[in-house]
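Q: My labmate handed me this sequence with no annotations at all. I'd like to see what the chain might look like in three dimensions before we decide whether it's worth expressing. Could you predict it?
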Amino acid sequence: MPDLPPISAETLETLRHIPTQTLIDGLWVKGWPMSFIHGAKPLQLGQHMAGRAVTLRFVPHRPDLAQDKPKGEQSAEYVAFELCGPKEVLVIDAMGWEYSSIGGDIKFLRLRQRNIGGLVTDGAVRDSVSLKEYGFPVYSAATTAKQGPAEFWPWQVNDAVQCGKVLVRPGDAIVGDDDGVVVVPRILVDEVIHIAHEREEVEEVIKAQLIEEQCSPGKYYPFNDETWKLFEEKTGKKRGS
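A: Here is what I predict for the chain of 241 residues:
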């Protein structure tokens, strides 16, 4: 992949205001996988999140692994925490073990102190009441009372991971709202934003026309030649302009 600059704060703010389903549509138009993180549900409604991915990978527990892994502040999760700030989202690959805990209030107090942009995992979180009070967006497969170390351990920081069956690379855009979380590859961010804005405008034209005509959505949706003809007539814009 080309050596791309980090996604800017301005671009992240733009992404934060685009619905996740519209970003999915933009990825689909480009022929990319739809990148919806399976199982990452909002801990509470009303969350809006956009940040650059910092990744952390968990691996299954085994006694020799527990002996060999770095301890204390050098443990992988704490290394990852220190890479996070207001414009970063920590994405944790928990292998889809939806009731296994990646952490709780004591660990994630540090994320609150660092004013993290968000936390996403296909595993579970503990101490959900405290996490809601911490104030940063959290998306997880579940909440749980179980302890994590009996089942798996944090192992690797800032490499390509899977989370909820989706590839996440460090620096990708991670966007969340009430419908879930979408990964927008860093290399594609600007194009997806352009497509998303156009689609939002087209869909508003379609909805207004359907109300006026009282006709089947199939006349204009999914997008077809009639759709673009209508769009050009109503807005004076050309497709892709």
